[in-house]
Amino acid sequence: MSQQHDTYYVPSKSQWPIVAAVVMFLTVFGAAHWLNAEPGESGFGKTVITVGAIGIIGMFFGWFHSVIKESLAGMYNPQVDTSFRMGMMWFIFSEVMFFGAFFGALFYIRNFSIPWLGGAGHGVLTHRFLYDNYSASWGAEGGNGPMHVGGAFSTVVPWGLPLLNTLILLTSSVTVTIAHHALRAGHRGKILVFLGLTVLLGATFLYCQAHEYMEAYKELNLTLHSGVYGSTFFMLTGFHGLHVTLGTIMLAVIWFRVLKGHFNKDHHFGFEAVAWYWHFVDVVWLCLFLFVYIL
Amino acid sequence: MAHEATHDHHDHHHAPQGFFQRWVMSTNHKDIGTLYLIFSLTMFFVGGSFAMVIRAELFKPGLQLVQPAFFNEMTTMHALVMIFGAIMPAFVGLGNWMIPLMIGAPDMALPRMNNLSFWILPFAFTLLLSTLFLPGGGPAGGWTMYPPLSLQSDSLAYVVFAIHLMGISSIMGAINIIATILNMRAPGMDLLKMPVFVWSWLITAFLLIAVMPVLAGAVTMLLTDKYFGTSFFNPHGGGDPVLYQHVFWFFGHPEVYIMILPAFGIISEIVPTFARKPIFGYKAMVYAIASIAFLSFIVWAHHMFAVGLPLGADIFFMYATMLIAVPTGVKVFNWVATMWGGSMTFETPMLFAIAFIILFTIGGFSGLMLALVPADFQYHDTYFVVAHFHYVLVTGAAFAIMAATYYWLPKWTGHMYSEFWGKVHFWCSVVFVNVLFFPQHFLGLAGMPRRIPDYNVAFANFNMISSIGGFLFGASQLIFLGVIVHCVFFSKKKAADRVWESAKGLEWTVPSPAPHHTFEVPPVVHDEELAHGHVND
């Protein structure tokens, strides 16, 4: 790594970190209060969450506003740029580990807990005394456990909407890469078209996902309550959907920043960070498609 | 290019004005490090007061002072506060202060995020501690929060969100440390010339980023199981409570190394200084830390031997766990070899460092005993486990933090602490901590279970001894507080730039107290300035 550099840019004092800490606290405090509220209790928790959530959005606007201003003023030298890149890469790594916890839970449930409940290995006595009628299987037959928590349900067929969603996300990865190449070559019109396409594809994915959820709840009786099948299905696809939502918003912000001419061919960390994030979301989806929908 | 754009020069050369601006809106690694250290000291006393309640109740058999439910809240909160509030922030504070000074960087790589990492913590702990005042009380199922017990408490949501906040704080702190170490080193500061403390933090930061999200996932599953009707840990729906333990300990075991690897780094700085010899086997020390970090990912189920794992799993995790003794042994032998033949003096930091080496090794050996599956069936969930992890966490991690405090306090404040009172603190601590925890080995071997407010009268004597040790150890820490307050505000004795005569490393080349901004222009590093510059021996 090159050690030749100017003095590092140590940013000036900022109110945004403390604002961020306060609004994050308000959000989770309100959420905790709301979760424990008795039915019919006044909406104190909800009010606090709302204030906190609006605060978080405002904080992001404010913080990024000041960062973008500094970036445009040329305060960030290549070394600072490297710090940002490292920050984003390790952030994505932490996200990978977060999804890892849920994929780990899925693999454990399918390979161990369901077979054991069905009497495999040392689960033989549990099965004999508690769940004599249960035969271990995944999917619609056994996926909601020996007591059929949540009632009978059917699974989502992978070759309909999920396949379409896979194609949508894969295409969006291609379009964002084309936009990146256009950025390197300095074709702003082309960037706007392909980045805009990526945003639209992201939004289409989310629309399809929402449609799939409604179908699951209304027609398949596949809900969050459908035993571990429902738990893993909705938690994994749900967290992925949240990440797609976030990614789409970030892509849209980048689209406007391209429109305003914030990036040039050498200086576009913001663009690349969001592109990395988008590829990460894409890879998570491929794992979901394979392990949650197909297998 | 960034020269003219650097922020206002007024700010550069004078201590910043305004209390709020300086401490709340800071972007200065030293100020933020100080905040971390003050926060962690505060939490050390909060968590310590919980421990006093526990030891007071256990002073005699029978229920004297508190109700069992409150006792359980105390054991749970003591652990959560000490782990996430005292030890981890102390190491982050030390890292914040010392890593930029040690590698010749002007600050942390991402200073504003650094400030956010800190300021999340007071709010997270407000959320956590507020549960003690809830109608249903705080969390009482142990810090590990095993379901289904933990799902019974209404405080779960507060605890889960507090842990989410702490996790966000830790991940951002760790990202910052990695970016600082990999991107901000002064010219000539090659990776294998960095102080061992910096190495230990680099590896610790990797562990943090890898496992804090897993903890977040585990507690999120608890949250949805309790409030949103999922079945992750409910066998009726196909789940398994043991799944939680797997996910939790996949985080939990690297977590215990997160709390000891920076301590290894600290000891590796202090021992060479007071033995007046370069550290023995620098590269071996670095590789040992890396090996321990790697092994920490494949040993988690040794916390769960008694839960009914398949035999193959028990055996694999037993052997993998015992392997950790090898790199740990390398470290202990290298510290001893560093002291061997050195011209040693015994200032307070060195005393704590030597006590660390001896007492941490005791904790390591009891850990080795616990790693044996057949033996663990006897020891599991007894006071033997409590004694084991207090030897590694109190006489290990906490002693290393105290050693570091004495070692670098003169650099931070520009004044010498009172060596006399430092030694009083040391001798009180080292004697009473053994009075406190050593009898717990015997209690555990005799079968006394942990996390209970009452016990068989057969355990009465050892418990009384342990409690007396506990009160005195707790009181000894007031001396620590006194020494710090005296050094910061009242000490007249100026510290030299190179506080300890044979201390090496860049941090000793800057004035004492370290100016608000250091190394604004990267220093050119020569090998002879470095403690571990010649690594080919």
Task: Walk me through this protein's architecture.
- The complex is a heterodimer of chains A (295) and B (537).
- Chain A has helices at residues 16-35, 44-72, 78-117, 124-129, 139-142, 161-185, 188-220, 227-259, 269-294.
- Chain A contains 9 helices and no strands.
- With 295 residues, chain A is an all-alpha fold.
- Chain A starts with 15 loop residues before the first helix and ends with a helix.
- The longest helix of chain A has 40 residues, at 78-117.
- Chain A is globular, with a radius of gyration of 23 Å.
- Chain B is an all-alpha fold and 537 residues long.
- Chain B is built from 17 helices and no strands.
- Chain B is globular, with a radius of gyration of 23 Å.
- The model of chain B is unreliable at 1-14 (pLDDT under 50).
- Classes of the chains: A mainly alpha (295), B mainly alpha (537).
- Chains A and B meet through helix 1, helix 3 and helix 8 of A and helix 5, helix 6, helix 7 and helix 8 of B.
Question: Summed up, what is this model?
Answer:
Chain A has 295 residues and is mainly alpha-helical.
Poorly predicted ranges of chain B: 1-14
Number of strands of chain A: 0
Which H/E pattern describes the elements of chain A? HHHHHHHHH
Strand-residue proportion of chain B: under 5%
Tell me, rounded to a whole number, the average pLDDT of chain B.
94
Order of helices and strands of chain B: HHHHHHHHHHHHHHHHH
Tell me, briefly, the overall form of chain A.
globular
Portion in beta strands of chain A: under 5%
Going by helix content, strand content and strand pairing, the class of chain B is: mainly alpha
User: What's the β-strand tally of chain B?
Assistant: 0
Range of helix content of chain B: 55-70%
**How many helices of chain B?**
17
- Structural Rg of chain A: 23 Å
Distance between the termini of chain A: 44 Å
For the biggest sheet of chain B, the summary is: none
